[in-house]
Design a protein that fits this description.
By secondary structure, the chain is α+β, with helices and mostly antiparallel strands. The chain contains five helices and twelve strands.
Length: about 270
């Protein structure tokens, strides 16, 4: 039975008291890949300075095999990409899963980067709602495992987010592969009024709050890495370093994946 959602002040107080930064299964930290999500705030730091090199340095700190970025493009006009993807590839071996036709890096500011693996399919998803929002869906084979990755930035309105999460759930169900959902989901609640409720019980973990916003004093768990099946994720943590606290108003989050444990999915393993 669902319970009444806590008020925002109660959520903030709880986050400040507990200061959780890491979630891990009891079975240990034997993941075989690192994935991460990072809202780069159009490369503008909390000091108000536009500094793409600083964001790139945080990305290097994270050292992810798969990385979802949000707000990597300018919001208006040509929506030009704000990072030097060539330099990023040289420093980290991360490359985008798709090449946009315009000067933007991604799709509605979403960029999905991978270090290794076979890219089997990439789709740009327009998300319903009042604001123009989108998601990238990529079917990959990484280290012998076929994996669907959905990178998204959900809307500011709860009604829009509810419609968006239902669409993303349908996309996850349409493929019998383990699925990751990563991004700025703009939702800190996980109970009755939460727009994330449609994802339960298919995706997890949702019960462990990992505050990532605002970066200087994180109190809201807006950024998420979720998996179906949940046991795909061995551990999750907030990447909280001095540089990350400065480079964007969001902290990155990263997870270790156990790609050897895909119970219930016939598609696990090599194709």
């Amino acid at each position: 039975m669902l319970h009444k959602s806590p008020t925002l002040p109660a959520s903030i107080i709880s986050a400040l008291q507990k200061e959780p930064r890491r979630y891990a299964h009891e079975r240990g930290h034997d993941g075989h890949a690192t994935v991460a999500s990072y809202n780069v705030h159009k490369c503008v730091g909390v000091d108000g300075l536009f500094d793409p090199d600083r964001v790139a340095a945080v990305i290097a700190e994270i050292d992810a095999d798969i990385l979802a970025l949000q707000e990597a493009d300018a919001r208006f006009g040509r929506r030009a990409g704000l990072l030097d993807l060539g330099s990023l590839e040289a420093a980290s071996d991360l490359v985008p899963v798709h090449q946009p036709e315009s000067q933007s890096h991604g799709w509605h500011g979403n960029v999905l980067l991978v270090r290794e693996g076979l890219i089997q399919d990439v789709r740009r998803i327009a998300l319903p709602g009042v604001e123009p929002r989108g998601a990238l869906l990529a079917d990959l084979e990484i280290k012998g495992v076929r994996l669907r990755v959905i990178a998204a930035h959900l809307g500011l309105l709860r009604r829009s987010r509810s419609r968006q999460t239902e669409l993303l759930l349908d996309l996850a169900r349409s493929k019998d592969h383990p699925t990751l959902l990563m991004g700025d989901l703009n939702e800190w609640r996980v109970r009755r009024r939460s727009s994330l409720v449609p994802l339960l019980p298919h995706f997890g973990p949702l019960h462990a709050p990992l505050p990532s916003f605002p970066s200087r004093m994180p109190i809201l768990a807006l950024d998420r890495i979720l998996a179906s099946p949940q046991q795909l994720i061995a551990s999750i943590e907030v990447h909280n370093t001095p540089l990350a606290r400065l480079a964007s108003d969001h902290l990155p989050i990263k997870a270790r994946l156990d790609l050897t444990d895909c119970d219930g999915f016939d598609a696990c393993g090599s194709s």
